[in-house]
Amino acid sequence: MLRRVLLFLVCAVFTAYVNGQSMNLSDSLKQVFRNKPFPVLKLDFRNSFVTGKSAQIGGVKAGVSFGPTLSLGLGYSWLHSDFFQEIERNGNMEKARVTFRFVGPFVEYSFFRKYPWEAMVTAQAGVGKLYLDPDGNSGGERIFEKQAFIYEPTIGFEYKIANLIGLGLGYGYRLVLHNSDEIEQQFTAPVFVLRTRIIFDKIWPVIKEKVYKN
Q1: Cα-flanking dihedrals φ and ψ of residue 179, to 5°?
Q2: What mean pLDDT do residues 33-46 have?
Q3: Average pLDDT estimate for 6-15
Q4: Which CATH number fits the domain 2-213, given the four candidates 3.40.50.970, 2.40.160.20, 1.20.1250.20, 2.30.110.10?
Q5: What's the DSSP call for residue 36?
Q6: What is d(CA 140, CA 111) in angstroms, rounded to the nearest whole number?
Q7: Using N-to-C axis directions, what is the helix angle for 2-20 and 22-34, rounded to 10°?
């Protein structure tokens, strides 16, 4: 019940902000895409839960930003924490590492900016793999491998350092759909985000100036 309430609240916040800005977005979308695109690179670690236990999800996002308002790109995430499940293998009971990773597009919309603070909503959807690895490494045997679908909306706040690096915190909810009855872990859970962003549109002119001087 708590998970459903949290999911509803996150989706409601995301929808409210998007709908609240829908007229501005429709009126200014052409203007946004007239901005010169700059690369976006974000590293984040999301503290979350797997079957009620604390877990860390690692992630990297890369794409382009059109001005300070809109960013689009592709993200890759993986289960960074160690989780194991007992399985029967060759007549013996063994522990297999739970492996979960996914890739998919993301969109981020900044709805508040007052230097050095910024607030944004982010939505990431994707498809991934969920399986057990008895050898404990990505090159090992994959047992009970299934496809999973992920949707993860978050709302976050960022503090800029010298307008070159952004450090941020966020909160959201991860919804994971899969049909694996053999894997016991539950991945649908709240998400707490800690992220770092390199602000390329501010750094690039500095790098370009130094290159030309040399």
Answers
A1: -120, 35
A2: 84
A3: 48
A4: 2.40.160.20
A5: P
A6: 44
A7: 70
